[in-house]
TrEMBL record, chain A:
Residues 1-22 are annotated as: Disordered. It is a multi-pass membrane protein. It comes from Streptomyces natalensis ATCC 27448. GO terms for molecular function: transmembrane transporter activity. Its main location: membrane. Keywords: Cell membrane, Membrane, Transmembrane, Transmembrane helix. One of its GO terms (cellular component) is plasma membrane. It is found in: Cell membrane. The chain crosses the membrane at residues 30-47, 59-78, 84-103, 110-132, 138-157, 221-240, 270-291, 341-359, 366-385, 391-410. This is ABC transporter permease. Residues 1-12 have a biased composition (Polar residues).
From TrEMBL, chain D:
GO terms for cellular component: plasma membrane. It is found in: Cell membrane. Keywords: Cell membrane, Membrane, Transmembrane, Transmembrane helix. This is Sugar ABC transporter permease. The keyword Transmembrane helix applies. The lineage of its organism: Bacteria, Bacillati, Actinomycetota, Actinomycetes, Kitasatosporales. Its main location: membrane. The chain crosses the membrane at residues 12-38, 58-79, 91-108, 114-135, 144-162, 194-214, 244-264, 322-341.
């Protein structure tokens, strides 16, 4: 998934405006960053004793939390790359989760996943009809779809799962939840998983840490998680390396230009929004499959968070994956009593801020350096005077992180140019 | 290629009415007509972007009907639009291959092909640059390459020269002749008659949506052509007597403005700009679009905050004042893009009359609006400025461009400005309205108004101005006397080829004095 | 127009207003329904059951109760402490109707408040956990950190400590104050996994629906036990595949309480005031299905006796760490 | 004059056309759904109408509509500016929470305490919304995303403080802030069979103020200008950034009022059972009422009506959840219908203007010929 960290933009040589080459992450750089972060994490674990930082269980939980968010974010990415804002992701996830629940208890988890995709895609189709064909404001349509999906799933759940004397009710369904479905199969790389877990137990510096993180990737991983990883890679190749993707993105960057070259903009927007819904639906289905049942309120705002990860990830699959990973990691920390771990992260943050301050100082930006330094000092004091962080703060950390990242980096983000604009065929003058 | 009886109606307008044109293979065919005559619409029909309500298109004797540009492309027709059709965030390569992916893919083969075409026609296109980073002329070459890449045999160029300076126009024409030599057909739209006569093999004149004449360049003069175009004597922007006083109305000193782009790179858009406009003076600024004129206007209006420099209006420093106060202090503003900056398209006319002057009489009483007075005054403007509308309750969007512009002019004049900023005041306006707007500017000038005029129409600029300055890369690089200067000379300064005070030299185009640039 | 309360109706049977979980929540709503079902079988009363929506206001709950009373149902029972306030208010408008409220005491004169000594049964669960744990590490997962769930936590912690002073109890909540905590098995899964990873081998979960997630997780690791809550989770169809990991369940006999109330109204001797269902009178108890606590039954019974006799006083708020 | 009368008439007809179209479409779709479940939709509507017209139902509906209406107003202030304040939900909750904390800590006479509580709520609400406004103007972050984040953060802040020993007390199974003294109980309007919430008066006043400020003041004109065209507003001298922050502050202040009917008239404290989600309902109602003060009032009442009568459907063996479907379908139909009607209206007007001008032109030509 790291391939897509490489921005497909090139340096522009001799040019009348002074331009620095756009930042490009090459493979060596990515490797350097990854190994650097690993060493930092290991160090931090050794210093603070917060084993959660690199424990395999932590990463398994993080992965499970990240998958639905990531799928929603990827769904957002598809829609927005074609120029359609999709705030209806939440509703599409609901439809996906519901459909999965409705189908899964009789036909198993794979059918549930397929149903989730279909349910979400239907939601996407509705959004496409309303925004593309009828030209309604995208956000308004999305909100309306969320309201609608909520009403519909609650109504149908009562009708299908909770009806007195029905087979579903007998199988354990009720007004608010579907009957349970069988487990989604998982895979474990036979020898490797065991070996890694053994290495992890030794708590060797770096080695055990890497083993812990790697272990989570080869032990009891749901096939749906694997499928999600594939979808991320596929998205990159389809959107950035295929004619179809070029056309789709062109609809988000300049629909009138695309139209003038014979691209059927409506068709691509439809395709993108339907895929967007399908991905969100799969995210919803993952939620249902993970706990074997569909439940009312199961999505819990993950559609909105997916949207945030998409922006956070600069409308790129790699970025979305990172954003979802952050939310997943924090979610997992909160679940696993991550107070001490977040406490340890305070120290890391303080150190990073000191680094930033030095860097800014070198660049001559004194004020920013001073601010960073002050923040670092505050964090250090916080770290020194406490030994854990309240769980409420752990839970809210990703939201604050998103806010911070967005407010620090919003100017560097490159949303598609024509995003949210109503496009009508033949409007070009 | 034959177009027969083409008719196209838009709500409220008949853009094309029973048009007949025949285009010979391997020629450059020019289409001339005033703004709004229906040229672009006709070409969009030929390119499949719009469907004609009536009429037929025939190619090589075969009747065709296009449902989308793809159909036209398949027939070897390509079009470079009046407003460029490029996606800024995509690379040149992506923009070129878009829609034509089947030809050479979207990867290395396509890049090779692009470089090949670029070399063959001397276009100098770099495939991996973001379009966002290109200037106008470069963008146009990308557009042309886009069409050639698809193997088009017929090229439609819709006003390709509007944004180019004369030297760039010459380069373009060289390209066109090259294409013609290769056997391609070029359809070329312009209302710059000199150009047309120099490059075209056939000329068709369109007036009010219909063909009025087909002529051959050798048998006609620019004057005849112009009269065919407007159907009467050409209106002239010539100002007669000078009304310039020595009272300074606007004085800008050392304006400097830089903007940071997405990557955080600073770009200087105004570089030490100083100018003075006196009461009763029209100061014209020439320059290729994107050289800082828009930013200069916005800096004077207070819509942008210059990094340094001062602006004085009628003796008082307004550098730090917000836009609203500047307007209250007497700056009138006819914006370059009336849809973006001058109107609320979906609001009724009387609300548009309030726009920009909400704090002033008759629109407001204290903190409240005075709707009655505002409505009454809108009626007055409509009558006085000949805004053709059935009433003041209709939305601005339902008026034609010229009438929208007259409303804006009326609105701005109603507040008796000391300084009027007129950016492209007659762009996209029909000839009748054009003459009226010129008259109004002249009259206001007589009454002691100072005018900052910005226009891409060099005739308008030379005709109306008392003083001319040329802007290039954020600097005022040259000045000229409108009484003696010609558009060509102005053009050479606009490309940066000449600086200082422009005088007519004996042999050929203007030569700038070698002294330091034009800013005082 | 005319007020809907004037329309009136005859005696129609029991009106049951559920909390958001609804009738088949496999938890206390279901238990209440079971009580009504039993009453129906025993003396033929009819019933109407209605369920709350998410994010309700007092007005919604009041409307539900008064609609039931208005339609002629008697008694009208609010299931869940959320109905505490609204039952009191509506009861005043319908003095001839008997109301009941589960999990909340009441002051109104025609209301029967049914509260349960969850802490006492949880104490026994603590005893069982302490005896069964091999690692001397046990865990408690609460759905939402509210006063009701704190009763479970307090009893459990006390039971563990007083049985095995060496044992370490880890108590955590899924959410601080979001009712989602009763409805988020995914979160409970993660919590339970974290506890298992930390070496905890008995986990008691008091989190409504979410508990399923933790039971499932515990079942995935050999040699560990889950303790269920509210109803006998060993017998629950949805959990059948994990039942061999369910050590026991802390049961609140809501069905008994509801049955009592319905019967009293049927007998025209309506119960009012507050009643605390305790260990002593089997209002709360530990389930024995599966027989996994057979070996320690004697010790559990001993503890129960101490509580019943008042020798051991079980706290209803957790000791501050 | 005659002509503008005709355009006005058109405007009125088109204005009504959208909601009528939407409601008809929504009824049709809902009927199909009910029919599909094998039940009679007409009977359902009859039950709803009958129960909804009862006097106690009407009181209930109005009381329920008051916070909905306030919420819609808060959302609409943003909408008129093209700002999408999804954060009304977080704003009113955190506002009500701190207002309850302040109110519970003080015992002043009512005429001081009540305004003080309301003021605190409006202040906290606007601070919370203002964060989003500031981030938008200074850092260019979309308010949609920041308000979503701020909703989650507000919930966490409340969750942190709403615990025994922090800012809350334990009461039975609930935690809530210390209750307000009796002096700060808001008045109610004694109607039969149940009293109307006194905050109705506040809602009406705020609704009128909303209309007046938007349509009759310079400030309102500026605000609407920004909503219609940011670039035109900027050129017209409106400080767009300041306007964005100001309207977010106003929106947040209005959001602060949403929790007040509950706090001052019903619960007298902020507890774990304080109603949530009204901010999202407000979005639906603002969409439905087209940001118009009267339209939103009608929409809020419609919402109250649906919720009131939905419960009654259960007694007739319908699913009360059908109400949720109705709400969703209505909103969706309404937004589509508005857009269709708006575009049709615009085209119609363009055509009319064209036709009328052509007729004028012909007349003058004729006049010239005949003279
Ligand atoms: N999509 C459209 N909808 C409505 N009216 C249109 C549309 N496109 C063009 N028109 C109108 O049709 C008429 C002809 O426009 P067109 O763009 O063809 O003129 P043109 O000759 O290209 O003018 P210019 O020299 O300004 O480019 C104008 O009155 C214009 O306003
Ligand atoms: N002979 C050709 N010469 C030039 N371009 C061509 C030719 N054949 C195809 N193309 C280009 O390839 C594009 C794709 O062709 P295709 O048949 O896929 O169109 P389409 O399916 O109608 O497009 P879309 O799926 O986007 O609506 C065309 O739009 C056109 O730009
Ligand atoms: Mg195709
Ligand atoms: Mg044109």
């Amino acid at each position: 998934m790291s391939t897509n960290l490489t921005a497909p933009v090139d340096q522009s040589p001799q040019h009348h405006k002074p331009k620095t080459p756009r930042a490009k992450l090459s493979y060596p750089k990515v490797l350097l960053i990854v190994s650097g972060s690993l060493i930092l994490l290991s160090l931090l674990r050794v210093i603070t004793g917060a084993t959660n930082l690199t424990e395999s269980g932590q990463y398994t939980a993080a992965l499970n939390a990240a998958v639905p968010i990531g799928l929603a974010g990827l769904g957002g990415l598809w829609a927005e790359r074609s120029g359609v804002i999709n705030i209806g992701l939440e509703g599409m996830m609901m439809l996906g989760a519901f459909s999965a629940g409705a189908v899964g208890w009789q036909h198993g988890p794979w059918a549930a996943a397929a149903a989730g995709i279909l349910g979400g895609a239907l939601g996407g189709l509705l959004h496409a009809v309303v925004t593309v064909t009828f030209g309604v404001d995208h956000i308004i349509s999305g909100v309306a779809i969320n309201i609608m999906a909520l009403g519909l799933t609650q109504f149908l759940a009562k009708l299908w799962f909770g009806a007195d004397g029905s087979a579903a009710a007998a199988a354990g369904g009720n007004d608010k939840q579907s009957p349970p479905m069988p487990d989604m199969p998982t895979f474990t790389v036979p020898g490797l998983s065991h070996w890694l877990s053994a290495v992890e137990q030794h708590h060797w510096f770096l080695v055990s840490d890497v083993a812990g993180i790697a272990g989570s990737l080869v032990t009891n991983v749901s096939w749906l998680t694997v499928a999600t990883a594939v979808v991320f890679v596929l998205t990159f190749f389809v959107l950035w390396r295929s004619p179809f993707g070029l056309r789709l993105r062109s609809c988000g960057e300049g629909p009138i230009a695309a139209e003038s070259l014979g691209v059927n903009v409506y068709r691509y927007k439809y395709a993108a929004v339907v895929v967007s819904g399908a991905l969100a639906g799969l995210g919803g289905a993952f939620l249902a499959i993970y706990v074997h049942i569909y439940q009312d309120g199961q999505t819990g705002g993950r559609g909105y968070i997916g949207l945030a990860t998409m922006i956070f990830g600069n409308w790129r699959p790699g970025g979305v994956a990172m954003g979802a990973g952050l939310f997943g990691f924090m979610d997992a920390l909160q679940l696993r009593g991550g107070g001490p771990t977040v406490h340890a992260l305070l120290l890391l943050l303080a150190v990073l801020l000191v680094g930033l301050a030095l860097w800014k100082l070198r660049g001559g930006q004194r004020i920013q350096a001073a601010i960073s330094l002050a923040a670092a000092a505050l964090l250090a004091v916080w770290y020194a005077t406490t030994d854990t962080v309240p769980l409420e703060i752990v839970g809210v950390a990703p939201y604050i992180a998103t806010l911070l990242v967005l407010s620090l980096a919003a100017q560097r983000l490159r949303p598609p140019k024509a995003i949210g604009k109503i496009y009508r065929r033949g409007q070009g003058k | 290629m034959e177009l027969r009886g083409i008719t196209k109606r838009f709500p409220g307008v008949v853009a094309n009415h029973d048009i007949d044109i025949t285009i010979r293979r391997g020629t450059v065919h020019a289409l001339v007509g005033e703004n709004g005559a229906g040229k672009s619409t006709l070409m969009k029909i030929l390119y499949g972007m719009q469907k004609p309500d009536e009429g037929t298109i025939g190619i090589d004797g075969e009747r065709v009907s296009f449902h989308s540009p793809a159909d036209a492309i398949a027939r070897g027709i390509g079009m470079v639009h009046q407003h460029f059709m490029l996606a800024d965030n995509l690379t040149v390569l992506e923009n070129v291959v878009l829609g034509g992916e089947k030809l050479h893919g979207i990867g290395g083969k396509a890049r090779t092909e692009i470089l090949k075409i670029s070399e063959r026609y001397g276009l100098g296109v770099r495939p991996d640059v973001l379009v966002e980073d290109l200037g106008v002329a470069d963008r146009q070459r990308v557009e042309i390459l886009k069409v050639l890449y698809r193997g088009a045999r017929t090229l439609i160029l819709d006003e390709p020269t509007a944004v180019l300076v004369p030297q760039e126009v010459d380069a373009l024409f060289d390209n066109l002749r090259e294409l013609k030599a290769e056997g391609l057909t070029v359809i070329f739209i312009s209302h710059k008659l000199g150009e047309v006569l120099s490059v075209a093999d056939d000329i068709t004149v369109i007036r009010r949506g219909t063909t009025v004449a087909s002529v051959v360049p050798g048998e006609t003069t620019p004057k005849q052509l112009a009269e065919l175009m407007v159907g009467s004597e050409l209106p002239s922007p010539q100002t007669r007597e000078s009304t310039v006083t020595d009272v300074e109305m606007l004085k800008a000193e050392g304006l400097r403005l830089s903007t940071a782009d997405a990557e955080g790179v600073e770009r200087i858009v105004l570089d030490d700009v100083s100018l003075t406009i006196h009461k009763g003076e029209v100061l014209g600024i020439a320059g290729v679009e994107g050289n800082g004129q828009a930013e200069l206007v916005e800096a004077i209006m207070g819509m942008r905050d210059p990094d340094s420099g001062t602006i004085t209006l009628d003796g008082s420093d307004i550098s730090r004042l917000p836009t609203r106060t500047r307007r209250e202090d007497g700056i009138g503003y006819i914006p370059e893009d009336r849809h973006r900056h001058g109107l609320l398209l979906e609001a009724p006319l009387w609300e548009n009359r309030i726009l920009g002057h909400v704090t002033e009489k008759p629109n407001a009483k204290g903190l409240l609006l005075d709707l009655k007075a505002a409505r009454a005054d809108t009626e007055r403007i409509v009558a006085e400025y000949d805004v053709r509308t059935p009433g003041i309750e209709v939305t601005a969007a339902s008026l034609s461009g010229g009438n929208q512009q007259k409303l804006i002019v009326g609105r701005e004049m109603s507040h008796h400005p000391k300084l009027l900023i007129a950016a492209h005041p007659t762009r996209g306006v029909d000839v009748g309205a054009q003459a009226q707007i010129w008259d109004q500017i002249r009259e206001a000038r007589r009454e002691g108004l100072a005018v900052l005029l910005i226009s891409a129409d060099l005739d308008e600029l030379i005709g109306l101005s008392d003083t001319l300055r040329v802007m290039y890369r954020g600097r005022l690089v040259a000045d000229a006397d409108p009484a003696t200067i010609t558009p060509e000379e102005l053009g050479s300064a606009m490309t940066g080829a000449a600086t200082g005070h422009l005088t007519v030299s004996e042999d050929g185009p203007a030569e700038g004095r070698t002294e330091e640039g034009g800013s005082e | 127009g005319e007020s809907s309360t004037e329309a009136g109706g005859k005696d129609k049977g029991v009106g049951l207003a559920f909390d958001v979980g609804g009738r088949d929540d496999h938890s206390f709503n279901e238990a209440a329904a079971r009580g009504v079902d039993k009453a129906q079988k025993d003396f033929g009363v009819k019933s109407k059951m209605m369920t709350a929506k998410n994010g309700e206001t007092e007005a919604d709950r009041e409307q539900r109760l008064s609609s039931l009373a208005e339609a002629g149902y008697n008694p009208v029972i609010g299931v869940g402490f959320n109905y505490g306030k609204s039952v009191n208010k509506v009861a005043k408008q319908f003095p001839k109707t008997t109301f009941g409220v589960v999990d909340s005491p009441s002051q109104a004169k025609n209301v029967y408040g049914m509260v349960f000594a969850e802490n006492e049964a949880s104490y026994l669960a603590g005893v069982a956990a302490a005896l069964k744990s091999k690692t001397h590490k046990v865990g408690f997962i609460g759905g939402v950190n509210n006063a009701l769930i704190q009763k479970f936590q307090a009893g459990f912690e006390q039971g563990v400590k007083e049985t095995d002073p060496k044992a370490k109890v880890t108590s955590e909540y899924l959410y601080a104050n979001d009712d989602k905590g009763f409805n988020d098995p995914a979160a409970a899964k993660g919590k339970a996994k974290g506890m298992l990873d930390a070496g905890i081998d008995v986990i008691y979960t008091a989190a409504g629906q979410s508990g399923n997630g933790s039971i499932e997780t515990v079942a995935g690791k050999k040699g560990t036990w889950a303790i269920g809550v509210d109803s006998d989770q060993y017998l629950q169809p949805g959990l059948a595949q994990y039942k061999n990991s369910i050590l026991t369940s802390v049961m609140k006999n809501v069905d008994v309480a509801v049955y009592d109330l319905v019967q009293s109204v049927h007998d025209k001797k309506p119960l009012t005031g507050n009643k605390s269902y305790t260990l002593k009178d089997n209002g709360v108890r530990l389930s024995t299905s599966g027989g996994f606590i057979k070996d320690i039954q004697a010790k559990i019974d001993a503890a129960k006796k101490k509580i019943a006799s008042g020798q051991v006083k079980v706290s209803d708020t957790p000791a501050k760490q | 004059m005659k002509k503008s009368a005709r355009f006005d008439k058109n405007k009125v007809i088109l204005g009504i056309a959208a909601p009528v179209l939407a409601i008809v479409a929504a009824l049709l779709i809902t009927s199909v759904i009910i029919l599909a479940t094998g039940k009679d939709p007409l009977h359902a509507y009859a039950v709803m109408l009958d129960f909804g017209s009862k006097s106690d139902s009407q009181v209930w509906i109005i009381n329920k509509a008051v916070p909905y209406y306030l919420s819609a107003l808060a959302v609409a202030i943003g909408f008129r500016m093209n700002l999408f304040n999804i954060g009304v939900d977080g704003q009113y909750r955190i506002a009500a929470f701190f207002a309850a904390v302040v109110g519970g800590a003080l015992t002043l006479p009512g005429f001081l305490q009540i305004p003080l509580i309301i003021l605190v709520a409006m202040l906290v609400g606007s601070v919370w919304a203002g964060i989003a406004g500031l981030l938008k103007t200074t850092r260019g972050v979309s308010e949609v995303i920041t308000t979503i984040m701020l909703n989650a953060i507000a919930a966490a802040v409340i969750g942190y403080f709403l615990q025994d020993g922090r800012l809350a007390v334990k009461d039975g199974n609930l935690f809530h802030t210390p209750s307000l003294p009796a002096s700060s109980h808001f008045f109610s309007i004694p109607t039969q069979p149940a009293p109307l919430d006194g905050f109705l008066v506040v809602a009406v006043v705020v609704g009128f103020a909303y209309w007046f400020v938007l349509n009759r003041t310079r400030f309102g004109f500026d605000l609407r200008t920004v909503g219609q065209s940011e670039s035109a507003a900027e050129a017209g001298g409106v400080g767009v950034k300041r306007m964005i922050v100001t309207s977010m502050l106003l929106s947040g202040a209005a959001a602060g009022l949403i929790g007040m009917p509950t706090l001052l008239g019903e619960s007298y404290n902020y507890g774990t059972d304080f109603p949530i989600g009204i901010g999202f309902t407000g979005i639906a109602i603002a969409l439905l009422g087209r940001n118009h003060p009267v339209g939103m009032a009608a929409a809020a009442l419609l919402w109250g009506f649906l919720e009131r009568t939905g419960t009654q459907l259960e007694f007739e063996d319908y699913q009360q959840e059908i109400v949720g479907v109705m709400q969703g379908v209505i909103v969706l139909c309404v937004v589509v219908a508005y857009e269709l009607v708006r575009r049709y209206g615009l085209r119609l007007q363009q055509r009319q203007v064209g036709a009328e001008l052509a007729a004028q032109a012909r007349k003058t030509e004729k006049a010239e010929v005949s003279s």
